[in-house]
Each structure stands twice: as structure tokens, then as C-alpha cells.
Amino acid sequence: MSGNKQYQPVNLKEKLSLVDDQWVPRVLAEMNDYQFKIVKIKGDFIWHDHPETDETFLVLEGEIRIDFRDGAVTLGKGELFVVPKGIEHKPFAEEEAHLLLIEPKGILNTGHAGGEITAQNDVWI
Questions:
Q1: Distance CA 35, CA 123 (A)
Q2: How far is 114 from 125, CA to CA, in rounded Å?
Q3: Pick among 3.40.50.150, 1.10.3720.10, 2.60.120.10, 1.20.120.10: CATH of 21-104
Q4: Which pLDDT score is estimated for 123?
Q5: pLDDT digits 0-9 by tens, 91-120
Q6: Residue 21 in contact with residue 69, Cβ under 8 Å?
Q7: Exposure pattern of 110-124 as b/e (b: 16+ CB <10 Å)?
Q8: CA 51, CA 54: separation in Å to the nearest integer?
Q9: Where are the chain's structural domains?
């Protein structure tokens, strides 16, 4: 059974080394209707929400803050937070941070806010 490619692990550090741009999620894997995406972020994003789904942020490197209209949460390496569906939020990172996002297939990074920072969806790395 050795050498069967379908049993190869996904190396997060290796995949992140292939990502040069920020705020552009890349799909690593799928589980049922959910995608696991890596993304590098730095600076401020836009206010947006996802009316149809929760969104999970897991910090792999660095520190981020997720702003809400009524507060904020700060996450460090190894911490995760689930933003409930329909809650407007705005991620921010003072220095570059690396994240794993978990969300259903078809979810745009800007929700329905749109604009020039909307990344192409369903791009695998």
C-alpha cells in the first residue's frame, strides 16, 4: 500500500511557502461541502458578513484581530474563533499573519460586500 498518493498529508508550512499575495485564500482540502483554505493577511480588510454560514479562523502564525460593530477578539498562534453567520466583521493584522479558514464551498472572502479585494473563489494550491 505504500506510495499511494491518495494518502499523502497536506503540509501547511509547505503550502504557505507557495503563497506570495495577501488576502487571497487558497483551497487545501475539502471535507463534505466544506473547504480548508490558507491565507496570508496584513493590514485592514473590509467590513463584511456571510449571511448563510459561520466562518472559522485558525491562526497558524502571527496575531490577528477580528473587529465587530460591538467589540473585537484577538487571536494568536494556535487559537481559533468562529464568526457566527450574519455577524459583520473585519479582520486586521498589524504584521503578516497566516491563517487556516474553514467554510463551505462557494463562500467569497468579502461575503456580499464585493469590491476589488474580492478574491477568485475555489483556487487550489
A1: 11
A2: 23
A3: 2.60.120.10
A4: 76
A5: 999 999 999 999 998 876 555 555 555 556
A6: no
A7: bbeeeeeebeeeeee
A8: 8
A9: 21-104
